[in-house]
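Subject: for your reference before the review

Hello V.,

The reviewers asked for a structural picture of the protein, and I figured it would be easier to keep everything in one thread rather than splitting it across files. Below is the amino acid sequence we used in the manuscript, unchanged from the supplementary table.
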Amino acid sequence: MKQLFNVRGSVRKQLTWGVLLLIPLLFSKCNKDEPIKPTEPQNLESELRVEAPSVTGEEGGYVILDLILESKLSKDLILKGEFDKTGLVNPLDDSEYGNDFEYSNDGVNWSKEASADEIRFKKNNHLLKVRIKINEDATPEAVEELNLKLTIKNNSEFTITNKLPSEIKLEVLYNDADEYLDSGLIDVAFENNYSTYKLAIVKRVTQKTKKYINPDIYTPAIEAAKKAYELLPSTIKVGKLIFDANGQGGVVYPTDGPKNEIWNMGISLDLAYINDQGQSTDNFNEIGLYGYIFTHEMGHLFTLHRGEIDETSTNCANYSNQEGCTKVNSAINEFNEGYYKDDPTLNEPTHVSDYAKGRLEEDIAECFAHGIAQATIPTATNISSGALQKLNFIKGRDFFQYKSKLKEIFGKIIFPPGQNDVMSRYSYKNEKGEIIPCTDYIEIKKAQKRMNSKR
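And here is what came back from the structure prediction:
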């Protein structure tokens, strides 16, 4: 019995311990199963590229580029960014862009590193957006550029196939992109009787033309033009002043508005910034050539506007051109009557310049510009040179009253090279003291030689 009891007691103890061991198991099964985190796959190999090698942004906004990893990495990839302006025609100034990088995986939440030149491509992501802040200013500008070089800072921790270009090109547009021109340089659209204006600029500049997309350069020319245009009669307005930098001179033409009422003027701004050696200078109209060209174009405006044209004429008896039938007392009609109609014989020089020989309209405009540039105009007679007679004709027109005003506006108005004062040839005398006729070039040259030898 005792042995049996001991056996039973032993069994009872074993059962008791078994029950005690089962209790935690029973309770653990009653609790909610905890998820077992899977082991994160390790990947340190991928290909890195950028979606586009050139990206564009606007002033006041951001330039944003997209970086792509073909395979997600299991560690953060650290990139280093460096800006470079080498070889750029129109680079951004340092003050025009932020010196740090922001990055985002969703384009909504942006971060940046403590080190301004670092970018973190966080693990387990395929796409990273990187943005650079572009500061805004009020100056119209052509497209500006900046190159970005990206390198992998912790490259030794990975096996990366780097497909990034050596430089990513960042382009920045002036924030009113609709005002860009496809050609030309600057369009100045005048408003409120020239008191205000709007600028449109060429989208891209060259090494040669970028100098002129600068308020310090174009503003003096605009201000001079405004003052000059205010001298025009009420029957004509200049709608646009169009600057180029091709060295070709100037042009005027009527717009599609009311006949001969609104005109545009085109002119080479680069000619306003050359010195007497033909080299670039920062002084507006330094040698007076630009002032002469502008005055020539003003000569067209003074003589071709609506007040000089008979728009109702159906059977023109006066001088007619593409602007219409000129009025009987208009400057061009009277100029035609005196110096072109019936092909009169005029003493040499017949024109103030070779350019004036092209057509009547150029002749009268050249006479106006030449007359403004020439300090004094001698009185002509019917045997004076044709050029001097024409200058006296222009001198008698009402718009010639602005001679001193135009010289004040431009500072200088000087003939182009090779063009000289037109004087009365009868100021030359031979050795006997007799007046030399204007047609006797041999004696005139002798007289000039004698005069020069006495200087």
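For the response letter, the relevant points are probably these. The chain has two domains: 45-173, 186-410. The chain is about 25% helix and 20% strand.

Happy to draft the paragraph if you're swamped.

O.
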